[in-house]
Design goal:
Layout lengths: L34 E6 L4 H4 L15 E7 L9 E4 L3 E5 L4 E5 L10 E5 L4 E7 L5 H4 L2
Antiparallel strand pairs: 1-2, 2-7, 3-4, 4-5, 6-7
Protein name: PIHD3 protein
Pfam family, one: PIH1_CS
Family: Belongs to the PIH1 family.
Length: 137
Protein backbone atom coordinates (compact mmCIF):
# COMPACT_ATOMS: atom_id res chain seq x y z
CA UNK A 1 0.00 0.00 0.00
CA UNK A 2 1.43 3.34 -1.07
CA UNK A 3 0.59 6.56 0.69
CA UNK A 4 0.54 9.46 -1.81
CA UNK A 5 0.74 12.23 0.73
CA UNK A 6 3.54 12.80 3.18
CA UNK A 7 1.00 13.91 5.78
CA UNK A 8 -0.95 10.78 6.69
CA UNK A 9 -3.78 12.82 8.25
CA UNK A 10 -4.70 14.31 4.87
CA UNK A 11 -7.93 12.73 3.64
CA UNK A 12 -7.49 13.68 -0.05
CA UNK A 13 -4.85 14.79 -2.50
CA UNK A 14 -5.04 18.13 -4.29
CA UNK A 15 -5.55 16.21 -7.57
CA UNK A 16 -8.81 14.79 -6.16
CA UNK A 17 -10.40 18.22 -5.67
CA UNK A 18 -12.15 19.56 -8.80
CA UNK A 19 -10.62 22.66 -10.37
CA UNK A 20 -12.51 25.77 -9.34
CA UNK A 21 -14.14 24.24 -6.26
CA UNK A 22 -12.73 27.03 -4.11
CA UNK A 23 -15.27 29.33 -5.80
CA UNK A 24 -18.27 27.10 -4.98
CA UNK A 25 -20.56 28.51 -2.34
CA UNK A 26 -23.57 26.24 -1.83
CA UNK A 27 -25.03 28.52 0.84
CA UNK A 28 -25.20 31.59 -1.40
CA UNK A 29 -28.92 32.28 -2.10
CA UNK A 30 -28.33 34.35 -5.27
CA UNK A 31 -29.78 32.81 -8.39
CA UNK A 32 -27.80 31.90 -11.49
CA UNK A 33 -28.37 34.23 -14.47
CA UNK A 34 -29.23 33.03 -17.94
CA UNK A 35 -26.13 32.70 -20.10
CA UNK A 36 -25.10 31.58 -23.53
CA UNK A 37 -21.71 30.29 -24.73
CA UNK A 38 -20.76 31.05 -28.34
CA UNK A 39 -17.62 30.11 -30.24
CA UNK A 40 -15.86 32.43 -32.71
CA UNK A 41 -13.62 31.36 -35.54
CA UNK A 42 -11.62 33.51 -37.96
CA UNK A 43 -12.10 32.17 -41.47
CA UNK A 44 -11.42 33.55 -44.92
CA UNK A 45 -12.42 32.53 -48.43
CA UNK A 46 -9.59 30.01 -48.59
CA UNK A 47 -11.18 28.23 -45.61
CA UNK A 48 -14.83 28.48 -46.64
CA UNK A 49 -14.64 27.79 -50.37
CA UNK A 50 -11.37 25.97 -50.92
CA UNK A 51 -10.80 24.18 -47.61
CA UNK A 52 -7.11 25.04 -47.75
CA UNK A 53 -6.57 25.23 -44.00
CA UNK A 54 -7.08 22.52 -41.43
CA UNK A 55 -10.08 24.30 -39.92
CA UNK A 56 -13.50 22.74 -39.66
CA UNK A 57 -16.76 24.03 -38.15
CA UNK A 58 -16.21 22.28 -34.80
CA UNK A 59 -15.49 24.10 -31.53
CA UNK A 60 -12.01 22.55 -31.55
CA UNK A 61 -11.07 24.99 -34.34
CA UNK A 62 -12.46 28.12 -32.68
CA UNK A 63 -10.14 30.86 -31.46
CA UNK A 64 -12.46 32.67 -29.02
CA UNK A 65 -15.27 31.93 -26.59
CA UNK A 66 -18.01 34.55 -26.13
CA UNK A 67 -20.17 34.28 -23.01
CA UNK A 68 -23.34 36.39 -22.99
CA UNK A 69 -24.83 36.75 -19.51
CA UNK A 70 -28.28 38.29 -18.94
CA UNK A 71 -28.19 40.64 -15.94
CA UNK A 72 -31.55 42.41 -15.65
CA UNK A 73 -31.78 45.39 -13.30
CA UNK A 74 -27.99 45.52 -12.91
CA UNK A 75 -25.60 48.44 -13.24
CA UNK A 76 -22.11 47.99 -14.64
CA UNK A 77 -20.59 49.13 -11.33
CA UNK A 78 -22.37 46.26 -9.49
CA UNK A 79 -20.59 43.53 -11.47
CA UNK A 80 -17.60 41.65 -10.09
CA UNK A 81 -15.91 39.40 -12.67
CA UNK A 82 -12.99 37.04 -12.08
CA UNK A 83 -11.52 34.97 -14.92
CA UNK A 84 -9.15 32.07 -14.30
CA UNK A 85 -7.72 29.63 -16.88
CA UNK A 86 -10.84 27.38 -16.80
CA UNK A 87 -13.26 29.33 -14.56
CA UNK A 88 -15.50 32.37 -14.97
CA UNK A 89 -16.79 33.73 -11.65
CA UNK A 90 -19.39 36.51 -11.86
CA UNK A 91 -21.11 38.14 -8.88
CA UNK A 92 -23.73 40.89 -8.64
CA UNK A 93 -25.97 41.80 -5.69
CA UNK A 94 -28.76 39.55 -7.09
CA UNK A 95 -26.99 37.00 -9.32
CA UNK A 96 -24.04 34.62 -9.11
CA UNK A 97 -22.48 32.52 -11.88
CA UNK A 98 -19.66 30.03 -11.50
CA UNK A 99 -18.95 28.70 -14.97
CA UNK A 100 -16.44 25.96 -15.76
CA UNK A 101 -15.23 26.86 -19.24
CA UNK A 102 -15.01 24.18 -21.97
CA UNK A 103 -11.42 25.15 -22.89
CA UNK A 104 -8.47 26.82 -21.20
CA UNK A 105 -8.48 30.55 -21.91
CA UNK A 106 -5.97 33.38 -21.79
CA UNK A 107 -7.28 34.91 -18.56
CA UNK A 108 -5.05 38.00 -18.80
CA UNK A 109 -6.23 39.24 -22.22
CA UNK A 110 -10.01 38.93 -22.29
CA UNK A 111 -12.55 41.65 -23.02
CA UNK A 112 -15.84 42.38 -21.28
CA UNK A 113 -18.48 44.92 -22.17
CA UNK A 114 -21.85 45.63 -20.59
CA UNK A 115 -24.66 46.33 -23.05
CA UNK A 116 -26.99 48.34 -20.82
CA UNK A 117 -29.88 48.51 -23.32
CA UNK A 118 -29.86 44.70 -23.60
CA UNK A 119 -28.96 44.19 -19.90
CA UNK A 120 -26.26 41.75 -21.02
CA UNK A 121 -22.61 41.31 -20.12
CA UNK A 122 -20.57 40.05 -23.08
CA UNK A 123 -17.24 38.43 -22.18
CA UNK A 124 -14.82 37.50 -24.99
CA UNK A 125 -11.92 35.17 -24.11
CA UNK A 126 -9.15 33.84 -26.34
CA UNK A 127 -8.89 30.06 -26.26
CA UNK A 128 -5.46 28.88 -25.16
CA UNK A 129 -4.69 25.38 -26.42
CA UNK A 130 -1.34 23.71 -26.13
CA UNK A 131 -0.82 22.86 -29.82
CA UNK A 132 -2.65 25.68 -31.63
CA UNK A 133 0.64 26.98 -33.01
CA UNK A 134 0.95 23.69 -34.93
CA UNK A 135 -2.71 23.17 -35.88
CA UNK A 136 -3.49 26.69 -37.10
CA UNK A 137 -0.45 27.96 -38.98
Amino acid sequence: LQVKSENRKTIWDTEDVPEGSEFDDTWDPREQPEYQILFKQCVGTEDVFFGMSRKDPSTACCEEIVIKIKLPETRCSDITLDIQDKILDLRTPKKKLLLHLPYHVDSKNGKARFLSEEETLEVTLKVSRQFDFINFV
